[in-house]
Amino acid sequence: MPRTAADAPLYVRIADALRDAIAQGRYPVGSRLPSEATLRAEFGTSRGPVRQALDVLRAEGRVEIARGAAARVVDHVPTQPFESLVSFTEWAQSLGREPGQRTLVLERVAADADIAGALGIEVGEGVIRVVRLRSMDGAPMMLERSIFVADAGQHLFTPGFDPDAGSIYQHLRASGIELYRGRHLIDATAASDEDAALLDITPGSPLLRVRRTVADRAGRVLETADDHYLPELTVISIQNTADRPTSSLSLLPHAPLIA
Amino acid sequence: MPRTAADAPLYVRIADALRDAIAQGRYPVGSRLPSEATLRAEFGTSRGPVRQALDVLRAEGRVEIARGAAARVVDHVPTQPFESLVSFTEWAQSLGREPGQRTLVLERVAADADIAGALGIEVGEGVIRVVRLRSMDGAPMMLERSIFVADAGQHLFTPGFDPDAGSIYQHLRASGIELYRGRHLIDATAASDEDAALLDITPGSPLLRVRRTVADRAGRVLETADDHYLPELTVISIQNTADRPTSSLSLLPHAPLIA
DNA sequence: CAGTGGTCTAGACCACTGA
DNA sequence: CAGTGGTCTAGACCACTGC
After folding, report:
1. Can you give the pTM of this predicted structure?
2. Both ends of chain B: CA-CA distance in Å?
3. A–B CB contacts, 8 A cutoff, strictly below
4. What is the pLDDT of residues B81-90, one digit of tens each?
5. Which residues of chain B have a CB within 8 Å of the CB of A136?
6. Distance separating alpha carbons of residues A141 and A146, to the nearest angstrom
7. Residue closest to B227 by CA, chosen among B197, B184, B258, B193
C-alpha cells in the first residue's frame, strides 16, 4: 500500500517512492539513484516532476546531485520537522523516546512589561503561565517556562485536558490554534537556585538555554518560552555544505530581543 | 551596473534583480512582488525561470508564496552562508564588525586517540593545533581550539602568513584546500581554569560550546574544533515555519560523536 | 564521447484567493 | 469570477562527468 495519497501531486509521490526505496536499502548510501531519464520512463511522466522530486530529496539532504552523473545517496541525518523544534513531546516521539512531564505551574496571571513586550500585548493583559519539568525515558532533561497569550492558553484549562498526559501543542492544534512560525535563541546560562533544585544539579551549573517564540501565520506571537536543558543530555546539531547553506539559521552577537 | 555576471543563469539574474529591488525598498515588507505573468513579460522569458527565481527568494526566507496572490515580501533575518558558520572572521565581517584574534598556540603535534578519532586518522599522525582568542570590535568573545589534519594545517606555516592578521579559512581556501561540509554540535559547558583566565571570567561560569567538524566534498575531515563563546555576547538563532522546516538542523539527546 | 544533469521554452489545466 | 500560483507536458540546447 503506498504511503502517499493517490491524489497527491505526482512529484510528491515520486519523492516518496524514492525515499522509501532508499529507506529499504534498495539504494544504499553511496550508490546512485536511477537517472532522470530512467525515472521518467519508470513513472511515465515528463522531466519536470522527476526533477522536482529529486529536488525535494536534495533539500532534505538525502541525495547529492551534480552534473554528469545520477543523484548519489548520502548518509542522512534526519531533519527535524517544525513540530519537533517546538514540541518536546513530538521531538521525543520522533526519536523513539518516551517523553514525560510534571506540571509545576499552570496559572493565569497579568502580563508584566517583559512578558507584554515579548508577546506584543499590553501590560496587564491576562496570559497563561506554564512551568513544566520535562523528562525523556524517565530522566529529567529540561525545565520549560512558557507564557501563552490568553486566547491560545485558555485551551489549557479545557475540562478533561491533563497537561501531564499529552502534548500541549497537539492539544492547541486540535483546538484550532495555528502555530506557524518558530524562532529559537540559543545560548548558555547558569542554573538558578530553582533550576538547580528541580533538575538536581548545583546552582550556577551551565545550562543550555533555548528561548522560543512561536507565532501564527499572520505573525501574531502566541507563546514565548524559556527552556533550560541539561547540557550533558542535549546538544543541537547543525549541518550544512558550501552549496546548500542552512536556511534560517544565524549566529548573532549579543542577544537581540524577541522578534 | 548589474551585480550579477551577464552569463549567470537567467533565473539567478531575476532573483538578484528582485532581491536588489527589495533591498532598495521598492517592495517594502508586507507588499507584494509583481505576479509571475508580469515578471515573465518584464524579463521577456517563460514561466520556468521566473518561478525558479521566486523559489530562490522563498528558500532564502525573503518572500512567502501562496496560491491566489503574488509573493509577499516578509521581514527577513539574513541567513548565514556556509562560510559564516565556519569562519569567525567572515562571520564578523558579514555583520559589519571588526574581527580580531590573538594566537596563543600554533604547533604541530602527534594525534592522540581522541583527535585521531575525530579526524578519522591514525593515532600518532601529525596534526596542527591552533588556539586563538577571538574578539569582535576589540572585546574578547570566544576561545577557539582547533585541530587540522597535516596537509591542510601545514599551510598555516606558510612564510608570510600571520594567523593574527587574516582569516585561516581564507588562507586555506587560497591554498587550494576545499572546505565543503560543516557540522556543529552546540551545548553548554562550564569554564575551565584556562577558559576563565583567558576570557576573564570566573571558573565554572557557563559558556556556549560549539564543536565544529569541517570536511571536504569527499567527506574527509579536515578540521575539528571546540569553540567556547561568552554567552552574554553570542546567541544562536533559528527560525522556521510549519511549511518550510529548517534543513539540516536537529536537536539530539546526548552528544553523538563527531560524524 | 555517450550519457548525465542544468537550463529554458511554450504551451496546458486546475485549485484557490481576494476584491 | 478574474487572476493568481501549483502542477504537468514535450520538446530543446548546453556543460560537464566518467568511462
Report:
1. 0.77
2. 44
3. 242
4. 656 667 788 7
5. 253
6. 16
7. B184
Tens digit of pLDDT for each residue in A18-77?
999 998 889 988 888 999 999 999 999 999 999 999 998 888 778 888 888 899 898 776
In this structure, are residues A74 and A29 in contact, taking their beta carbons and an 8 Å threshold? yes
Q: Would the CB atoms of A248 and B246 count as touching at under 8 Å? A: yes
Distance from C-alpha of B36 to C-alpha of A223, rounded to nearest angstrom: 36
Please, what's the b/e burial string for B220-244 (b: 16 or more CB within 10 A of its CB; e: otherwise)? bbbbbbbbbbbbbbbbbbbbbbbeb
Q: Does A187 touch chain B (CB under 8 A)?
A: yes
Measured between alpha carbons, how far is residue B124 from residues B46, B110, B111, B141 in Å? Answer: 59, 5, 5, 33
Looking at CA atoms only, how far is residue B229 from chain A in angstroms? 9
- One-letter amino acid of B51: R
How does DSSP classify residue B243?
T
Residue A181 in grid coordinates: 512560525
Is B186 part of the contact surface with chain A (CB cutoff 8 Å)?
Answer: yes
pLDDT tens, position by position, B129-151: 999 999 888 888 899 999 999 98
Q: What is the DSSP string of B78-129?
A: PPPPHHHHH-HHHHHHHTT--EEEEEEEEEEEE--HHHHHHHT--TT-EEEE
| Main-chain phi, psi angles of B104, to 5 degrees | -100, -30
B40 sits in which H/E element: helix B36-43
For residue A235, the Cα-to-chain-centroid distance in whole angstroms is: 14
Q: How many residues does chain A have?
A: 259
- C-alpha span between B11 and B17 (Å, rounded): 10
Q: How far is it, in rounded angstroms, from Cα B92 to Cα B27? A: 28
Q: Which of residues 47-106 of B touch A (CB under 8 A)?
A: 59-61, 75, 77-85, 91, 95, 97
Contact B26, B17 (CB under 8 A): no
Q: If you write DSSP's letter for every residue of B143-212 in order, what string do you get?
A: EEEEEEEHHHHGGGG-TT--TTTS-HHHHHHHTT----EEEEEEEEEEPPHHHHHHHTS-TT-EEEEEEE
Cell numbers describing residue A259: 522578534
Residue in A90, A131, A102, A150 with CA at minimum distance from that of residue A225: A131
C-alpha distances out from residue A39 to A35, A36, A42, A75, Å:
6, 5, 5, 22
pLDDT at B58: 86
